[in-house]
Amino acid sequence: RQLGEAASPKQGLKRLEEYARRMKDALP
């Protein structure tokens, strides 16, 4: 259970970083 909890936030962080990068590219 601990391992699963550790993998979840990691994946979320990766997705958040990708989202932030996309927003940066969208800005002029």
UniProtKB/TrEMBL annotation:
It comes from the Eukaryota. Residues 14-28 have a biased composition (Basic and acidic residues). Residues 1-28 are annotated as: Disordered. This is Os03g0797300 protein. It comes from Oryza sativa subsp. japonica (Rice).
